[in-house]
Amino acid sequence: MSEQEKIIEIRNLTVTRSNSKVIESANLTVEKADYVGICGPNGGGKTTLLLSMLGVLPRQEGNISLFGQDIDEFRDWNRIAFVSQNAINFDLHFPMTVREMVGLGKVSGRNLGRRLKQEDWDKVDQSMEFMGITPLADRRIGQLSGGEKQRMFVAKALVRNPELVLLDEPLSGVDAETTEQFYKLLSNLNLKNDTTIIVVSHDLTAVFCRMNKVICVNRHVHSATITPDLDAEGLLKKAYGEHFHFAFHEHECKGAFRNV
Known about the structure:
Elements lengths: L5 E12 L2 E12 L3 E5 L6 H8 L7 E6 L2 E2 L9 E4 L14 H6 L14 H13 L15 H13 L5 E5 L7 H18 L2 E5 L3 H7 L2 E6 L1 E6 L6 H9 L5 E4 L6 E4 L1
Parallel strand pairs: 3-8, 3-9, 6-7, 7-8
Antiparallel strand pairs: 1-2, 1-4, 4-5, 9-10, 11-12
Helix pairs in contact: 3-4
């Protein structure tokens, strides 16, 4: 098998916030078509790592490359889509439909001010269908549930056909069934389109069931490919501490772990 294209490469990354090291000497690689889960305890630096990958936060030391290019020189941001954990926090009374919100994903500096073409709306409809929200097209965005809002924002991110999608805790407070459906949709996107996906998640079942790589973060960063012989407990203890233990249980896609 030929070597996969490196989408993100991080070497010796240190990030400081409020005079404290949040990420220290991190090294990791994300390759094309990886489906990666970032996990770790609250305050461990998961969001900081994600935002550093996007160049949002300044780094104290180290190098970051996107699609083989140094992040300081990278300009092709239309290849990347980001959905923040605060995306669903908006004015519930704002008079916009789901289809109109998804259509905003087609607006950029290149076409700002012009009306979307039919081909743009066709792509909007395709993205909505892929995320299973076509029946919600004419509903006001303030009427959506938490899971529906997140699917809407992912559909909005997908209309530009990004090669890399990053999501920061997309399903906080959402029920288990909705969570499973959401991660299944992301699996389909990853498998059918070879889209590289990175998700910050507390749902270890989803990470070890559906994803092929895991990054554990608690100031220090530990990454591994998820295989049947991976010492998942040992890996996670590096981030969560020695008190952390696993129980194995069956899941619809394969065996999975959960915290006990």
